[in-house]
Write a structure and sequence with these properties.
The chain is α+β, with helices and mostly antiparallel strands and about 375 residues long. It folds into 3 domains: about 100 residues; about 160 residues, ATP-grasp fold, B domain (D-amino Acid Aminotransferase, Chain A, domain 1, 2-Layer Sandwich); about 80 residues, no CATH class. It is about 30% helix and about 30% strand. The chain has 9 helices and 17 strands. The chain has a 6-stranded mixed beta sheet with strand order 4-3-2-1-5-6. A 6-stranded antiparallel beta sheet has the order 7-12-8-9-10-11. Strand 3 and strand 4 form a beta hairpin. The longest helix is centred in the C-terminal third of the chain and has 25 residues. It is globular. About 0% of the residues have low confidence.
């Protein structure tokens, strides 16, 4: 029986999702073993973790060789355990006897650099690395409104909106589902706040896009793309995420709500709805081959797409370790597929020859 390894940084991470995968494993003639990268013994190449017992419907402590098929669900922070696990995962990804469902994507700037020379360039907000505060001041003077976002951010954490008024500066962010707003009376006060922020974290700068609905709520389209049991890309589903009035984020972790894509699309004028549908189909068909041409093979991609007030369509974020809340809430009929697909693709990989691998082990860890 094939052992399907699920790797996380915390044994309680994504508990409901991983439990459901484990419950479906028997139907695929597989068993699920979950473990931490830091639990691998480098001398024996054995790893301590938990095996799911389908009869008892529970997890049991176990120790076995590193699984040859691994589903990487590690989300790295700036803590010591994350720093310890990064080189271990890099080492695992370099091994020819281990196959990952997906090898991840690099940071947001590397993805932007790759796609800005592609057929999707016109859908990307102009993005630049923040090397110093002068870049921020220059863009604020030119555009009046900008967005700062962490180069490795996820779930909307650490995103800042900056607006230049006649003399003052307005800064807005969201933390713990609350909108936090500050006014700096002059440039000196703004710089005093900015300098330690960009020294502590790497940020990207983008123009501010009017991605709000008529109620001034930020909203976007979340799409989940996955490979099927025979290795072909397909779309699992899409939904609409809506945030708080006057806020920046539509992420569910920030308190956003969801509605079905079909309901939202039918609320639009038919011509506009058809235009958006065609544009989305083009973007989503183009994206996976463009990414896999430059980076290592992937299993799934979460794509966030914004639609501005003027009708322009923007690819806001691409995540190789997406969540599933949007689909579970808007398409409960997909529940079995959501939990079966990683197993089926893992089985497919175990039965096919290993793919040719490129040397992107270090750069594909951030997502």
């Amino acid at each position: 029986m094939i052992t399907f390894g699920i790797m996380t940084l915390n044994m309680e991470s994504e508990h409901a999702y991983i439990n459901e995968i484990a419950r479906h494993a028997k139907s695929c003639e597989m068993e699920v073993f979950r473990f931490l990268p830091s639990s691998i013994n480098p001398h024996t190449l054995q790893v301590k973790g938990k095996m799911f017992d389908s009869k008892a419907n529970c997890w049991l402590e176990n120790e076995l060789p590193i699984p040859s098929i691994i589903y990487d669900r590690c989300f790295y922070g700036e803590d010591e355990h994350s720093k310890q696990c990064l080189p271990i995962v890099s080492w695992l990804k370099s091994r020819n006897d281990i196959t990952f469902l997906g090898y991840g994507l690099p940071n947001k700037l590397e993805i932007y650099k790759t796609l800005k020379n592609s057929s999707l360039a016109s859908y990307l907000p102009k993005t630049q690395f923040v090397s110093d505060t002068e870049i921020i001041l220059k863009e604020l003077a030119a555009q009046k409104k900008i967005i700062l976002k962490p180069i490795n951010g996820s779930q909307g954490f650490g995103i800042y909106y900056l607006k230049k008024n006649d003399k003052s500066f307005h800064v807005k962010t969201e933390k713990q589902k609350k909108i936090i707003s500050r006014i700096f009376p002059n440039e000196a006060k703004l710089l005093k706040w900015l300098q330690p922020l960009i020294k502590q974290h790497d940020f990207l700068l983008q123009p501010y896009l009017e991605l709000n609905n008529n109620e001034l709520q930020p909203f976007d389209i979340r799409v989940l793309l996955q490979k099927s049991a025979n290795g072909f890309w397909g779309e699992l589903g899409r939904g609409i995420r809506t945030g708080s009035t006057g806020g920046l984020l539509s992420n569910l972790s920030a308190g956003g709500s969801v509605i079905s894509f079909t309901d939202w699309l039918t609320s639009l004028p038919p011509a506009k709805g058809e235009y958006i549908r065609q544009e989305l189909d083009y973007i989503l068909a183009s994206l996976p081959p463009l990414l896999e041409k430059e980076f290592m093979s992937l299993f799934e991609i979460g794509v966030d797409i914004g639609i501005a007030k003027n009708g322009s369509i923007w690819v806001l974020d691409i995540n190789s370790k997406p969540g599933r809340k949007v689909l579970l809430q808007t398409r409960p009929d997909l529940k079995d597929s959501i939990h079966l697909n990683p197993l089926l693709y893992g089985k497919y990989l175990s039965e096919t020859a290993p793919h040719e691998r490129k040397s992107y082990y270090e750069t594909t860890l951030s997502h």
